[in-house]
Write a structure and sequence with these properties.
Number of domains: 2
Radius of gyration: 19 Å
CATH architecture of the largest domain: Alpha-Beta Complex
Shape: globular
Number of strands: 14
Strand content: 15-25%
Distance between the termini: 30 Å
CATH topology of the largest domain: L-2-Hydroxyisocaproate Dehydrogenase, Chain A, domain 2
Largest sheet: 6 strands, parallel
Helix content: 40-55%
Amino acid sequence: MINYRKAVMVGCGFVGSASVFSLMQSGLFSEIAMIDADESKAEGEAMDISHGIPFARQMQVYAGSYDDVKDAGIVIVTAGANQKPGETRLDLVNKNVGIFKQIIPEIVKRNFDGILLIVANPVDILTHVAQKLSGLPENQVIGSGTVLDTGRLKYNLGQHLDVDSRSVHAFIIGEHGDSEIAAWSSANVSGIPLNDFCEMRGHYQHEESMRRIAEEVKNSAYEIIQRKHATYFGVAMAVRRICEVIVRDEKSIIPVSTAMHGEYGIDGVVLSMPCIVGKNGIENKVPIRLSEEEIHSLQESGNVLKGILDGLDL
């Protein structure tokens, strides 16, 4: 029986540990098992995080094994090589596909039937790999996709417009990486078209502002890595949000990595698109309004990832 109050984190590096720390404070789970190739690392992180439980909510955080996945509601995979300064997310692909070929079969052996949430990079490629290696239904294998990128876009727009970023409704779609697309055609602030709202706030250089903000969002990870050598707090909050949507069966619309089957002329690749997500994973893709240029860019993003997939031995 699936226990949606239990999660398993595979990978206890910066992202995995920060995510468990965020989840511990969320109250979503009563139990989180932490797994890492370095067992001592998992034990140390679990001990450290557990010492904060008296300041949060009663639960268990412990170093576990793959046997813990069999009844877990969500297994989160952050394990993989880290992105180094000067590397793109796609540069990590061969290293991390090799790691997934070890991890995913261990999960499958335990007859896991919950939601498999992939966070390791390149996340769209690795979500496709996890779908193929696990044999789980596609709706149960989700990538964190552009949830964080979308958060960055909303934050930057909120700063630009001096308005609460939670009132901004806009998506980054496509690859979580260099070919990502800001879907400006469907962007709005509390239902007001974005350009109209910008003018209401005294901003008229729409094209220039959109280019600048999209570049800032795309380059955010590189900027952070250059300064502190890793990114983990933002993505930890994105992981927490995705888990909230699943555990609470919110049926919220978030841009996660999902298999494309002809939508926008794209097939056979996993891309980040807005989807309705609940306790059973992805329920539906949401067909947001896109311009012809945005659709073309989305197709190009799909082609970039398809070219990488064609070179993999799966």
